[in-house]
Design goal:
- By secondary structure, the protein is mostly helical.
- Helix content is 73%, strand content 0%.
- It is built from ten helices and no strands.
- The protein has helices spanning 2-17, 21-29, 44-50, 53-78, 83-102, 115-125, 127-144, 147-168, 173-189, 191-199.
- Helix 1 (2-17) runs antiparallel to helix 4, helix 5 (83-102) runs parallel beside helix 9 and helix 7 runs antiparallel to helix 8 (147-168).
- The mean pLDDT is 92.
């Protein structure tokens, strides 16, 4: 029974995470596929640059709720099991949602970079770690004016924070496992941004993408 619940949570997490809100909003508001412009992502940043700030904010909210909703659902599903299974169920659902957002089956596996969906999951798993990652993201993004740089450093901060919090305070190993799965995915999905950062061609905060 537990095995079936675990598999079911992985599938649900992936399918929910794969809902391409960025592409949907782009087509509804401008009649475009945002993945054909800018960074080629369907996330908030690219939507904001190609469609507008309001659309980007809507996408951000929906993408955050994908991760948060799946992790909350996992708690409800596994609540009757032992505590360790609750934690592993949350880890499986949250990580699967990030994978679904990054490689969505509905639109040819070309998705976003997982930051907002991961953030939603993290805030439900551990709001303390979530706030640390948010602070790191804002500090780096505002200091250097690169959203991508803030996202990459926040992913690293996720691993460090999870290890510190849940080693020092005897937290669940599943949460550390979540960070070790999700952080590399986020960084890998930013590989194009990393190349542009090194080349000095990465778009800064406030720059817009010209859409025909």
């Amino acid at each position: 029974m537990i095995a079936l619940q675990f598999i079911g949570m992985v599938v649900i997490g992936y399918l929910v995470g794969a809902i391409p809100f960025g592409v949907i909003i782009g087509k509804m508001t401008r009649g475009i596929d945002v993945r054909e412009y800018g960074s080629g992502s369907m996330g908030m940043t690219n939507v904001m640059r190609t469609v507008g700030a309001k659309a980007g904010l809507i996408v951000l909210i929906f993408d955050v709720f994908k991760g948060a909703g799946v992790v909350a659902l996992a708690w409800a599903v596994f609540y009757s099991a032992n505590h360790d299974m609750v934690y592993w169920g949350q880890m499986a659902g949250g990580a699967s949602a990030v994978i679904g957002h990054s490689w969505p089956i509905y639109i040819g596996f070309r998705g976003g970079k997982g930051i907002a969906t991961a953030a939603g999951a993290i805030l439900v798993l551990s709001w303390q770690v979530g706030l640390i990652c948010l602070a790191v993201f804002l500090l780096m993004a505002l200091a250097f004016r690169y959203i991508s740089l803030g996202s990459i450093i926040a992913a690293i901060a996720l691993v460090v924070s999870m290890v510190v919090f849940f080693t020092c305070y005897s937290g669940p190993a599943a949460y550390m496992a979540f960070s070790l799965v999700v952080a590399p995915i986020v960084i890998f999905r930013h590989r194009g941004n990393i190349k542009r950062l090194l080349a000095g061609t990465e778009s800064k905060i406030g720059q817009k993408v010209k859409v025909k």
